[in-house]
Write a structure and sequence with these properties.
- The protein has 338 residues and is α/β, with parallel strands linked by helices.
- It is built from 11 helices and 15 strands.
- Helix content is 33%, strand content 19%.
- The strands form 3 sheets. Strands 7, 8, 9, 10, 11, 12, 13, 14 and 15 form a 9-stranded parallel sheet that branches. A 4-stranded antiparallel sheet has the order 2-3-1-4.
- It folds into 2 domains: 62 residues, Phospho-2-dehydro-3-deoxyheptonate aldolase, domain 1 (Alpha-Beta Plaits); 255 residues, TIM Barrel (Alpha-Beta Barrel).
- Bound molecules: phosphoenolpyruvate and manganese (II) ion.
- The site of phosphoenolpyruvate has 9 residues, from loops.
């Protein structure tokens, strides 16, 4: 931590800061310039609240130089974490495609979409049985019936299942059917849920909250890791900005930023980021080029009839064409789409 004293600060105020830092367990390294004093506070306190120093008399500004997350950080683990689910590995050379509907609606729908997904070479089927909807009057998902259907459709085509868990009380039920737990954007900081998922030996796909910083995303991953589950896959799905022409703003810079700071795999979800079918392919191609470890795409055989997110679901033909383009793009990076 670096403490920059105000130009007007007195020697006594600087001494007070140094004393206080000592009481908080830091050793101080003082560099007194002609105009300003800068104090380097040495010590590892990832949980330290820098406001405790910011509010002291004579302090101009305080900067943190170490990251507050530990287990999720690149300095804790240099090499990428590989997360293996059946024959799919996240975080390695393969870029993992994940596709399916927004929600599981009925048997005919999920089997039809699983066939489309599988025949395009995708190995991971997505679809929500418990849906976090903005309106309490909107379709909330089929619940356990939906879990049974996605499991059956995935087993028919030998696919891996990822489906959302909304609350701690649902974890055991969802665990019975899924291969990967999804934590949605709205639940990224549901800390009791994150801690509960930390007790399982099953990967968690953690989506970035739409008003969460990258650091907050990594701190949420830290909750799962610190609770004992090392297998967290991060997901950039767009953040809320002042822009209104897209559902969210796709913050693709999160991909290389996370890869620099963390060993965990990170995938991209252009469907929820842009929210309109015609915009999804361009941003999916950009996500592939950004170096994402996976791409999540919503697809529907009859999007006009979809009970949720139909306008952002790719049509089957569009989806197949996009998958071919993504294969070419990732091959330029020496990777393979799986
Ligand atoms: C989803 O993936 O279906 C979903 C609800 O996404 P998000 O949590 O990113 O809004
Ligand atoms: Mn959706």
């Amino acid at each position: 931590m670096i403490v920059v004293m105000k130009k007007s600060a007195t020697e006594k105020q600087a001494e007070e800061v140094i004393k206080q830092l000592g009481e908080y367990g830091f050793s101080a390294h003082v560099s007194a310039g002609a105009e300003q004093t800068v104090i380097g506070a040495i010590g590892v306190r990832p949980d330290f609240d820098i406001r405790k120093i910011k509010i002291m008399d004579g302090v101009g500004d305080v900067f943190k130089v170490t990251e507050p997350f530990k287990l999720a950080s690149r300095s804790f683990r240099k090499e990428n974490t590989l997360i293996k689910v059946k024959d799919v590995t996240f975080g390695g050379n393969e870029v993992i495609a994940i596709s399916g509907p927004c929600a599981i609606e009925n048997e005919e729908q999920v089997f039809a979409i699983a066939e489309i997904v599988s025949s395009a070479g995708v190995r991971v089927l997505r679809g929500g049985a418990f849906k976090p909807r903005s309106s309490p009057y909107a379709f909330q998902g089929l619940g356990e019936e939906g879990l049974k259907l996605i499991r059956a459709a995935a087993d028919r085509y030998d696919l891996v299942v990822v489906t959302e868990v909304l609350e701690s009380a649902q974890v055991d039920l969802v665990n019975t059917y899924t291969d990967i737990f999804q934590v949605g954007a709205r639940n990224m900081q549901n800390f009791p849920l994150l801690k509960e998922l930390g007790k399982f030996k099953k990967p968690v796909l953690l989506k970035r909250g739409f008003s969460a910083t990258i650091e907050e995303l990594l701190m949420s991953a830290e909750y799962i890791l610190a609770s004992g589950n090392p297998d967290v896959i991060l997901c950039e799905r767009g953040i809320r900005t002042f822009e209104t022409y897209t559902r969210n703003t796709f913050d693709l810079s999160a991909i290389p930023v996370v890869q620099g700071r963390s060993h965990l795999p990170i995938i991209a979800d252009p469907s929820h980021a842009v929210g309109l079918r015609q915009l999804v392919p361009a941003m999916a191609r950009a996500a592939a080029a950004s170096g994402a470890d996976g791409i999540m795409l919503e697809v529907h055989h009859e999007p006009k009839k979809a009970l949720s997110d139909g306008p952002q679901a790719l049509l089957p033909g569009q989806f197949r064409e996009l998958m071919e383009q993504l294969r070419s793009i990732v091959s330029v990076l020496g990777r393979r789409l799986a």
